[in-house]
Design a protein that fits this description.
single chain; about 500 residues; alpha+beta; Leucine-rich Repeat Variant; 4-stranded antiparallel beta sheet; about 15% strand; globular
Length: about 500
């Protein structure tokens, strides 16, 4: 039996997920700016969502694919930038380059805190790319270091480190020799010297001296976290070749590798030709194919309005395997269509469905931001399972930022068992004017929850309006100002330990 200590706690795991998602989003945007046509290849790599109840064991693939040149990229966000990858000697599927090809890239991006929450991180503008082939070659040549294994919470993995010299501050390169790189730090003009020799200990315990190759030239402006020298080539940009065709991806469907076939069906989903539709239909019909490959083929068809795709997704929604059902409802949240919205609404209303599947449907409705989902989300606040109510509230908050008048109407007309969820969603939806609030003070319950909505807003937004609330409803004004006082106090959320 595996010890519970071998797993990260929720906050730690959410923080790791958030750093990874923010980094991958930055890499995605950087690729777009270079002229690539990226798609998210590994589902969830750009999302903060953690699925705790039902664990989906997806096919391992890199995070991003450029469908125009077929380059795949594994994103690595670092709070302390270094050229490193987690690695396991005991488990093949946890090796650093598992499922990576020589043609793939690892993209490095630094991240720093932007707040106190586990999700509060900001990615650097700088993204740096390293070829997997180059990383493998330097590993074979024994020019890498290995850290001591991590603790139990990290799964006892080690890190492979490709030695590098990295700028800690912005500046300008003033000297590059075979022995060192020097740059003048911006701000205080201090000269920083970085030696290019490094003494390492190989995996076999042999000590050796290696030389790092400079990656900058004299006069070049550098930024924090820029790699100035390394044992492996590092680039900031690589051009899109635009050489990937549907024929390439169709041929890839015959690969023995699950991850290659998955990559192919994911790529083909952006093309809309009769030939592509035919091969995706054939892939769905292959009962011996991996279910996630078949589901991606169905998603590709559904995105183009093909009934064959919708039919297979519907079939998966009713499948006996919960993981397949959950994957189907998550996929529906990626397909902007009234059909997706209707299918998800049906799942959310269906009390026979597993609670985690209904919660997943609620989450996906939030991703769609379809106005027609407002009613079913509000209805879900009477669900017995708390997780269903929570995900419905989170989804409604996303819709409330777009359809605020409609959600305010739902609040005014709502029953006491539905108003808590609507009120919470409104409190997270952004600015609400005092006029908005005054219109929904229809009864005592509404007045109480209206105080909650206002109490969780920033007081500064209401400096010029709050007296009007005091004149119209002194009790709501009093409750709101008390909440402001408590929430903005230094004792709010203060914890006691031990």
């Amino acid at each position: 039996m595996v010890s519970r200590r071998s797993f990260k706690n929720d906050d730690s795991f959410l923080e790791k997920i958030s750093i990874g998602a923010i980094g991958t989003r930055r890499v995605f945007d950087d690729l777009v700016s270079q002229g690539h046509t990226p798609i998210e290849l590994e589902r969830g790599s750009m999302s903060f969502k953690i699925w705790k109840g039902i664990k989906i064991k997806r096919i391992r693939v890199p995070d991003i694919l450029c469908t125009a040149c077929a380059k795949r990229l594994e994103s690595r966000a670092k709070t302390t930038l270094e050229v490193s990858m987690s690695h396991s000697f005991a488990h093949e599927d946890r090796c650093w380059d598992y499922v990576l090809n020589d043609n793939d890239f690892v993209a490095l991006v630094g991240c720093k805190r932007s707040g106190k929450k586990p999700v509060d991180w900001q990615a650097d503008q700088l993204v740096q790319y390293i070829s997997v082939a180059d990383m493998r070659l330097t590993q074979v040549e024994k020019m890498v270091e290995y850290s001591d294994p991590k603790g139990a919470q990290e799964g006892f993995e080690t890190r492979i480190i490709w030695p590098a010299k990295i700028a800690t501050d912005a500046g300008i390169i003033i000297s590059v020799t075979v022995d060192q790189v020097q740059y003048r730090r911006r701000g205080n003009n201090r000269i920083i010297s970085l030696g290019l020799s490094k003494r390492i200990t190989t995996l076999e315990g042999i000590k050796r001296e290696i030389t790092l190759n400079p990656l900058v030239i004299e006069g070049e402006e550098v930024v924090p976290n820029q790699i100035l020298a390394s044992v492996v080539p590092v680039i900031k940009k690589f051009p899109c070749s635009f050489t990937a065709s549907t024929d390439r991806y169709i041929d890839q469907l015959s690969s023995f590798s699950h991850n290659e076939r998955y990559t192919a069906v994911k790529a083909l989903s952006v093309f809309s030709t009769p030939t592509v539709f035919n091969v995706l239909c054939e892939k769905i019909a292959q009962s011996n194919e991996d279910i996630y490959v078949r589901l991606e083929a169905a998603a590709g068809l559904a995105r183009h309005g093909r009934e064959e795709g919708w039919a297979f997704i519907k079939q998966c929604i009713e499948a006996p395997v919960l993981e397949n059902r959950l994957e189907a409802v998550i996929i529906l949240g990626e397909i902007q269509s009234d059909i997706s919205c209707q299918l998800l609404s049906n799942v959310l209303r269906d009390s026979r469905q597993h609670a985690d599947i209904r919660a997943g449907a609620a989450w996906s409705l939030g991703e769609l931001r379809n106005r027609s989902a407002l009613g079913v989300l509000v209805e879900s606040f009477t669900a017995i399972d708390k997780n269903v109510r929570i995900e419905a509230a989170r989804a409604l908050a996303k819709l409330a930022s777009v359809y605020k008048p409609e959600v305010l109407d739902s609040f005014a007309m709502g029953t006491e068992d539905k108003r808590p969820g609507i009120a919470w969603a409104l409190s997270k939806s952004g600015y609400l004017s005092i006029d908005d609030i005054l219109k929904v003070l229809v009864d005592e319950d509404a007045r109480q929850w209206a105080s909650f909505i206002l109490g969780y807003q920033e007081p500064q937004q209401y400096i010029h309006e709050i007296e009007r609330l005091k004149e119209q409803d002194a009790e709501v004004y009093f409750a709101t100002t008390v909440l402001w006082k408590v929430i903005n106090s230094w004792v709010y959320n203060l914890e006691v330990y031990g």
